[in-house]
Amino acid sequence: MRSWNVVPPSRAIFRLAAAAAALALGACSSVAGDVEIQRTALTTEIPTVGAASLATGVVTTPDDHPIKGIDVSKFQGTVDWAAVRGSGVSFAFIKATEGGDRVDDRFAENWANARAAGVPRGAYHFYYFCRTGAEQARWFIRNVPIDPQALPPVLDMEWNHLSPSCKRRPDVAEVQREMGVFLRMVEKHYGKRPIIYSSVDFHRDRLVGAFPSHHFWLRSVAGHPSLKYDQTTSFSIWQHTATGRNPGVVGNVDQNVYMGSVESWRRLAATGF
Asked: Could you give all domains of the chain from N- to C-terminal order, each with its CATH number?
């Protein structure tokens, strides 16, 4: 098992790709602005935004990354998982829990139906800053069954200014301490290292340099992470739109791409490493 202070191989590749991206961007006369690219289907071509491909080190778009996925919650309503599978989606992450007392209304339905359709899926937990990491880990474990075929669990870390019951913004030390408790408990229970999801602002505020042995998943819907954030060498998954369209889902859905190779994705999907 990898030690906590070892960086996954895909991240080392990303550092090289980031350098290539910097050279490529230096030759560009313009880049995409802070307006989210509108998507009409998972395979729709979009203008080049200056992204660096891990596989080739050349300028790419999300469509150049073959491993694509979606993430869903109750807000997507009833999902036709057979249609999702037919669209070529490689993975789906499904909201399971929030805080220490909420279960997504459609988690059980999505969890069972995605597996029945043959869509590789994992569960995610939305973190709540007014409960401890241990409380939230126990809640996630209570509600998400062990499934050897499931993708690694995901811990969703972002500021939630819309929460009616918790306005706390804990400092760096508290955030990282409580996250560490959650991550260790969940990894021990499921036997897979959790992935950490974050928005750009939360990562900048609380997570720069933290948890180097975990894969990170970044929300950056206004452009490729390397164009929007200077701390992008740690990210393995890119959420590039919140307004995507995908067969099997009515309305908007988050769309994502894995930034590494097929081989490294298989390792991540099986173990979290």
From this structure: 9-37+44-271 (3.20.20.80)
Catalytic residue among 71, 98, 187, 254: 71
Active site annotation includes 230? no
One-letter-per-residue 3-state SS of the chain: CCCCCCCCHHHHHHHHHHHHHHHHHHCCCCCCCCCCCCCCCCCCCCCCCCEECCCCCCEECHHHCCCEEEEECHHHCCCCHHHHHHCCCCEEEEEEEECCCEECCCHHHHHHHHHHHCCCEEEEEECCCCCCHHHHHHHHHHHCCCCCCCCCCEEEECCCCCCCCCCCCCCHHHHHHHHHHHHHHHHHHHCCCCEEEEEHHHHHHHHCCCCCCCCEEEECCCCCHHHHCCCCCCEEEEEEEEEECCCCCCCCEEEEEECCCHHHHHHHHHHCC
In this predicted model, what pLDDT tens digit does every residue of 159-190 receive, in sequence order? 998 889 999 999 999 999 999 999 999 999 99
pTM for this model (two decimals): 0.80
Q: Does the annotation mark 158 as catalytic?
A: yes
- pLDDT digit string (tens) for 120-134? 999 999 999 999 999
Catalytic residue among 63, 135, 158, 205: 158
